[in-house]
Description:
- The structure holds two protein chains of two kinds.
- Helix content of chain A is 67%, strand content 0%.
- By secondary structure, chain A is mainly alpha-helical.
- Chain A starts with a helix and ends with a helix.
- Chain A has helices spanning 5-21, 26-30, 41-62.
- Chain A has three helices and no strands.
- The relative contact order of chain A is 0.17.
- In chain A, α1 packs antiparallel against α3.
- Chain A has one domain (5-62).
- Chain B is mainly alpha-helical.
- Chain B folds into five domains: 4-223 and 249-439, Sodium/glucose cotransporter, CATH 1.20.1730.10; 448-530, no CATH class; 551-625, no CATH class; 633-722, no CATH class; 751-938, 2-Layer Sandwich (Heat Shock Protein 90), CATH 3.30.565.10.
- The radius of gyration of chain B is 58 Å and the shape is rod-shaped.
- Classes of the chains: A mainly alpha, B mainly alpha.
- Chain A binds chain B through residues 1-2, 7-9, 11-12, 14-15, 18-19, 22-24, 27-28, 31-33, 35, 37-40, 42-43, 46-47, 50-51, 53-55, 57-58, 61-62, and chain B through 67, 70-71, 74, 77-78, 80-85, 88, 225-227, 230-231, 234, 240, 243-245, 247, 252, 255-256, 259, 283-288, 290-292, 294-295, 298, 302, 305.
Amino acid sequence: MIRSRLTAQRLAFLFLLGCFFFNYPLLSVFNRSGDFFGMPPLYAWLMGSWLALIAQMAWVVERRGD
Amino acid sequence: MLQAWVIVLASLAYLGILFAIAWYADRRADTGRSLIANPVVYALSLGVYCTTWTYYGSVGRAAANGIGFLPIYLGPTLLFALAGFVLHKMIRVAKANRITSIADFVASRYGKSQLLGGMVTVIAVVGVIPYIALQLKAVSNSFAILTSYPQIIMPATAGAVPILQDSALYVAMILAVFTILFGTRHLDATERHEGMVAAIAVESMVKLIAFLAVGIFVVWGMHDGVGDIFARAATVPEVARRLATADSPAAYGTWGTLVFLSLFAALLLPRQFQIAVVENVDVSHLRRAVWMFPFYLFLINLFVLPVALAGLLHFPAGTVDADTFVLTLPMAHQHEALALFVYIGGLSAATGMVIVETIALSTMVCNDLVMPLLLRLRWLGLAARADLSGLLLEIRRWAIAIILGLGYLYFRVAGEAYALVSIGLISFAAVAQFAPVVIGGLFWKGGTRDGALAGLAGGFALWTYTLLLPSFAKSGWLPDGFIAHGLFGIELLRPQHLFGLSGLDEITHCLVWSLLVNLGAYIGVSLQRVPNVREARQATLFVGGTEAAASPNWRGSAGVTDLLPLAGRFLGRERAEEAFSRHAQQRGLRSLHELPADARLVSFAETLLAGAIGSASARAMVASVVTEEPLGLDEVMNILDEASQVRAYTRELEQKSLELTRATTDLREANARLRELDRMKDDFISSVTHELRTPLTSIRAFSEMLHEDPKIDLPQRTRFLGIIVSEAVRLSRLINQILDLAKLESGRAEWTVAAVDVGEVIREAAESLTVLFAEKHVALEFDVKEQGLTVVADRDRLMQVMVNLLSNALKFVPTDSGRVKVGAGATANEVRVSVTDNGPGIQAEDQEVIFDKFRQGSATTDVLTDKPQGTGLGLPISRQIIEYFNGRLWVESTPGAGARFVFTLPRQAGDNESVPQGDARLQSTGPGEGAHNKLSRGVA
């Protein structure tokens, strides 16, 4: 599948990004009471960044041309 | 409506549908139109990761500590971001080596070690049993709750009901039967189960839709959207607490631990390995799965927190187990159909997990644990049995039944002490022990069998002590004294605060210690020695990751007659023959009987068997028929020696090549010389024939005239005859000279060597020519010393030279005014003779040419009248003779002022030592005396 080394490296970059998104210390920024479009900030952040990460992974592996 | 029989019937009908799907997919696979050769099916089947833990347990976990359920799904997302480096490589390696399970993978990586395969199997079985218990608990609980509809009654604690009335027992039994029907109908060499994968993909769809249905019902049926739920939750302090995680280092530590623990679990759980690696049809399907599987996880988690909060808001605290909110919320609102659907979704989650997990485990138990043991027991005589394929299936069926039995046992013993998620995490921690040997094995060539064994053993021991045994103790099955006070009362050995480490939750605590020991032992022990030949070879295959490296690793051989029956015993005769025929076709042979008994065939048979009985056992079985010389250190050294010898040969070759080049140059030069000589010989022959033809022509012409015209008068006739005679004389002289020259050149001339007085020879020669000189009125003067002119030579030959030089001079001096002077003198060691004339002289460039055969100076041609003067052989012959006696002959001349021919000969030293080498040839047979005499006479 991931024939091109570039694709694998892009994915690996997303892995590092995900590790940063989903862990301390970034989590502590959102870990507070409050309201973010009717949702707790931590929940909104995690679900939002997770979906964004999946979208980027899809874009990386499905894009044509390399 | 929801009586027990309805639920049982619905469950059985659902399982029946699954079975039909599996059967259909198998049929399609047999006809070559695979249903599962599709990236979407692959991604969906990976959804087997989501079990009842996810389905029921996540809500329970969320109800207990809010967002804390999520790391279990973030980890796999991150794993798939690494797919390009880890999963992709793993699948390629597994396909190239026909890996059938994670135990096989580890055993194969570290030199096909049966011991290692067995150990991984034991860890996997022990580690996964709590996980299976979790499924049984969830299904039996959901069944019990659903049957009590419309009341919502929490089921009695497990173990409190008599065994025969325990629904979990029946769930376990039904699942065992179902799994056996699914997974062990026949034996496949590749150990792939197309039907099972298709069914799992369908189950993934069912559980996702069921969970989304509940979520939509709770969020929009019971409330006004997600915002409404969060807003309400915020008003209840007890519930609002769940909206954020505890803001402490330990909480973040736990969070991070769970992310990475689940990352490993999604790769290393036997069922994940089975689906992601073994059942993978095409490695390119991974591309789609990279985002589709994480997206699946995202969807199934979308409503977890809202449902948990709604459950907490709806049910009074402590009345309903949060693990059952998914089911009890629809029930509380009298949605029977939805409740039944939710129950079916839960059943899907449980059956999917149990089927794949137990099939994977049974393969491992059979291939890596039981078969190696049975084959070692000689008294069973298994190694000699004709057909073992039936036995293999039997072992797997029993393994499935026993694993589910153990799962049920764990459920009875420890099931109630923990929530669903906590039980699952125990299993996660167990399979995380495979991470160092698997990941390390893929990227580090230095790992050895001993290192892997030490790492796994150490990690597993610590997992058992810090996590498994406390779980038994907490459920009262073991005395719990050792948890509080440590083993033997030693505080430092308290399982959950080992060596005083505290402040961590039990999972993190276990992982810190077990992975530390695991990794340390794996690397530390591996570094004790370099990998042996077999380990190094497997390391190259796994780390290098190229199929091309899969060269035959057998150095012995065995024929089809040995290997086919062996494979037939495990695969069944027909399947084996089919596989061998295919192999023969691939090698371009007509039938399997033409297959040569070579290492490639043995390797093929080994790979084929590896699919059925695991790589380690396959190696052992094939070894029993192959007379292999293992690749020992000596042989490796030999190979290295050979390599250096080859280098030496190369150097030698280069030298030889240089020598050859030199020889070629020499030969080319020699060839050029030969060609030149050949050309000279041709010239010589053509000159000779030309010279011979001239006198012949005149002889013939005058003879014909005499013959044809009898009336020629006498004087005329006499003149003609005179010409004929003189031409005949000339001809015979010429022939004699040619013969003479040939003899001289070939060294076959006859020499009569004696002391000769040169003065006497000069006088004699001059005397013989007196008449000729007188006829031409040429004065002949002498300046010859009387004494000391003795040389060692052949008198007649010397005479020949002298006559030659004199007649030569006579030829070129002018008539009447010509003068020829002969001089002879002696120096200390040589005699010098000169013949001087007052002829036209010789051009400088001709002074050497005249000594060549048939060549005359250009001056001579000028004075040539109608007849050639001389044969052109006199001077060459003279030079040959003089040089034979170690003398020299040359000419000094100024054009227009005459010429002087000079020769020198060594003086006689008073003994015979100065006699030339030619002496030895005196006795050789040469031409007769007559020829010799003619020669001396004929020079003029």
